[in-house]
Amino acid sequence: xxxxxxxxxxxxxxxxxxxxxxxxxxxxxxxxxxxxxxxxxxxxxxxxxxxxxxxxxxxxxxxxxxxxxxxxxxxxxxxxxxxxxxxxxxxxxxxxxxxxxxxxxxxxxxxxxxxxxxxxxxxxxxxxxxxxxxxxxxxxxxxxxxxxxxxxxxxxxxxxxxxxxxxxxxxxxxxxxxxxxxxxxxxxxxxxxxxxxxxxxxxxxxxxxxxxxxxxxxxxxxxxxxxxxxxxxxxxxxxxxxxxxxxx
Length: 248
Prior knowledge:
- By secondary structure, the protein is an alpha+beta fold.
- It contains five helices and 13 strands.
- It has helices at 6-30, 33-45, 197-201, 206-218, 228-247; strands at 64-65, 76-82, 85-95, 100-106, 112-117, 122-127, 130-135, 143-150, 153-160, 163-165, 174-176, 180-187, 190-194.
- The strands form two sheets. It has a ten-stranded antiparallel β-sheet with strand order 5-4-3-2-6-7-8-9-12-13. The protein has a three-stranded mixed β-sheet with strand order 1-11-10, with no helix packed on it.
């Protein structure tokens, strides 16, 4: 009589038990944009490329006080544009110390994995309602700027943090600094750097310059810690005043 080896029976049992769950997981993951983005990255750049860093992201800053991220430490819903292709509804964190974007996506067994997105391939991204774009605005290579405003008046902010030595903390030898900003403004397609109220208004002249300076004082706008909402309102005021003046 023909007999089936015991090892073959064990293999068949394993195969039939695993395939349904694998197929189900694949179907479930195909509906998630985060997984589509991960697949696109690996298909376009290969699993060994810097864009996914060859390994999952992990927090190596646990011995440093504070965090290196833009805004809060939590992950934001947004979008990422890679090599000209935009992916909406992805979960992102922006590390402004390393100047890199971190993608969180749904992996197998519904685990949440995190990978690095290569700055070289990232053209732009959104964190909630805030928009960032890779631009060249001075002698440096292209870096990420938060873009605020529209039409002929815009503001560009490059965010960064530093790691500093802690002298008075017995638990942490180092800490992340408060976020620092490098500003540029654009009036009528002319881009220039600025640091404070005076240099922000310097390209303007006459009554427009005086009105804008008065607006900034009355609204207590300091470019050291101004919120995006404050800057949005300021830029709208500037745009309205420029249009009003040019129409006279």
